[in-house]
Design brief:
This protein is α+β, with helices and mostly antiparallel strands and 223 residues long. The protein has 3 domains: 7-47; 64-106; 114-216, Ribonuclease H-like superfamily/Ribonuclease H (Nucleotidyltransferase, domain 5, 2-Layer Sandwich), CATH 3.30.420.10. The protein is 41% helix and 15% strand. It has a 3-stranded antiparallel beta sheet with strand order 3-6-7, with no helix packed on it. Helix 2 (23-30) crosses helix 3 and helix 4 packs across helix 5 (82-89). The radius of gyration is 33 Å and the shape is elongated.
Length: 223
C-alpha cells in the first residue's frame, strides 16, 4: 500500500467519487485506506485542492547559548546526570531532549570504568610481553591464569559518565576504587587452556603467603 497518492491518483479518486463510487470502492481501486480517500474528498470539497498540506516541523526548543550552557555544565561535571544538568542550566527542553542534545554534541552516557593503577613502565612491559609471545602457542599451553575477587557487603552502584568515543580509560572519565569497612569474602581461582580450574575461598586478606600455600600444598591436585 503506497504511503501517499500522486496528484494524478488523487484526481482519479475525485473522478470516481463524482461517478458515485463509495469511499470503500475507491480505496480498493487505488489500494489505499478508506480514511485516505475520505481526506482527499474533504480537501476537494472544502478547498477545491488536490495537493497535500505540507506540515511544518516543530522548531528547536533551545537556543545555541542554551545548548552551550548545557555542554559546559557536563564538561565540568562529567559524572552528573542529564536530570541535574537540565535543572542547573535551566534547559528549556524535556529530559529526553536534554539527552538527545548531549548525544548530538558527542557525549555518550556510559558506565564509568574504574581507574587502572598502571605506571608507564607497567604498560610498556605488558605490551612488550604480549608482543614477545604473540604466536607462542607452546608457551601458552603451559600458562595458568589466576585472579582474585573480593565480594563486599557494601553498596557499590554503577556510576555513569558522559564522555566521547574511545575515552573509556582516560583519567577524567574513570573512578578510583575505594575500600569498604563492612565484611567481605575473598576468593581466588585459576583457569588454563586444559582445564576450567577451581575456586578457593580465602580466609583473611589475600596475601602472597596464601598464594604460595595454594600452589605448594595443592591438596586436591587441580593444579
Amino acid at each position: 500500500m503506497p504511503r501517499h497518492l500522486s496528484e494524478a491518483q488523487r484526481a482519479r479518486a475525485i473522478a470516481k467519487l463524482e461517478e458515485n463510487w463509495s469511499l470503500s470502492e475507491v480505496a480498493a481501486e487505488l489500494n489505499v485506506s478508506k480514511s485516505c480517500i475520505f481526506y482527499i474528498k474533504k480537501r476537494w470539497q472544502g478547498e477545491q485542492r488536490l495537493q497535500r498540506t505540507i506540515r511544518q516541523g516543530i522548531g528547536k526548543v533551545s537556543t545555541e547559548n542554551e545548548d552551550n550552557a548545557l555542554v559546559a555544565f557536563i564538561n565540568h561535571n562529567l559524572f552528573e546526570t542529564a536530570v541535574k544538568a537540565r535543572e542547573e542550566t535551566l534547559f528549556p527542553g524535556s529530559l529526553r531532549t536534554t539527552q538527545m542534545r548531549l548525544k548530538q554534541c558527542g557525549f555518550k552516557n556510559c558506565v564509568a570504568a574504574h581507574k587502572m593503577f598502571l605506571t608507564e613502565e607497567h604498560k610498556q612491559r605488558r605490551v612488550q610481553f604480549a608482543n614477545e609471545f604473540l604466536q607462542g602457542n607452546e608457551f601458552w599451553n603451559n600458562v595458568m591464569f589466576s585472579d582474585e575477587k573480593t565480594f563486599q557487603s557494601s553498596k557499590n552502584e554503577r556510576l555513569h559518565v558522559y564522555r566521547s568515543k574511545n575515552t573509556r580509560f582516560e583519567d577524567n572519565y574513570t573512578l578510583n576504587t575505594t575500600n569498604s569497612g563492612r565484611f567481605s569474602v575473598n576468593v581466588w581461582a585459576w583457569i588454563s587452556v586444559h582445564d576450567p580450574g577451581v575456586c578457593w575461598q580465602i580466609d583473611g586478606r589475600l596475601t602472597s603467603a596464601h598464594y604460595t600455600n595454594i600452589l605448594e600444598n595443592n591438596n586436591n591436585g587441580s593444579l
